[in-house]
TrEMBL record:
Gene3D superfamilies: P-loop containing nucleotide triphosphate hydrolases (3.40.50.300). This is Cytidylate kinase-like family protein. Pfam families: Cytidylate_kin2 (PF13189).
Length: 211
């Protein structure tokens, strides 16, 4: 019955990208078009790129994530099973709270496993951005103003790390398309076309009174 339906809340768009597929550009433009907040990745490409223990020490949360993943990416070694399980629980709970607090006001959320955390939330559109590897590396290099070879190295590490984070902490692989409502190949569909499609979908689901 209509009276039994819960309010849908303000629209939310979750985005996940294969490295360099344009999430920053798409996300900020969608947020602007819908008048919603934009929330970027929890960890930047620079964070994930690494740079030795000193740099990792500056980001304690990422170091804890790496430790929970088994230390293969440069986290703390020698953690016992109980500590690792507690780390995983704390990381997931903290991230869940953050994502749900963002969703209360509506918005565009990049990464953060928001796609699974908000899987059952009404008025929410889940989007995956992908594209040809050469195009993604070139876009990332241009955006970050770094050489192509450095962007290529980032791509290999970042796509792997972000996928493994989600598998270890949430039991899903965000690089696969099955959890998304919309999948765009930004090698073929221009960024502005992707933005228009997402905005139109959000408006169609939300109704004119909410967007």
């Amino acid at each position: 019955m209509e009276a039994d339906r819960q309010p849908a809340g303000k629209p939310v768009v979750t985005l996940f990208e294969h490295y360099g597929a344009g999430a920053q550009a798409v996300g900020t433009k969608v947020a602007e078009a819908l008048g919603l907040p934009f929330h970027g990745q929890a960890f930047s490409s620079e964070d994930i790129e690494g740079g030795g223990p000193d740099r990792l020490a500056q980001n304690a949360t990422l170091a804890t994530v790496y430790a929970a993943m088994g230390g293969a990416y440069g986290g703390f070694d020698g953690r016992d099973v109980v500590a690792t399980q507690q780390d995983k629980y704390d990381l997931v709970m903290d991230n869940n709270r953050t994502v749900r607090s963002y969703a209360e006001s509506g918005g565009v959320i990049v990464g953060r496993n928001a796609t699974v955390i908000l899987a059952d939330r009404p008025n929410t559109v889940h989007v995956l951005l992908t594209g040809a590897l050469v195009d993604r590396v070139a876009r990332a290099a241009q955006q970050a103003e770094i050489p192509l070879d450095r962007a290529a190295a980032r791509q290999q590490r970042e796509d792997d790390v972000r996928g493994e984070m989600s598998k270890v902490l949430y039991g899903w692989d965000p690089r696969l398309p099955d959890r998304y409502d919309m999948v765009f190949n930004t090698s073929r569909v221009p960024i502005d076309g992707v933005v228009r499609a997402i905005v139109e979908t959000v408006r169609a689901l939300a109704g004119p009174a909410q967007v």
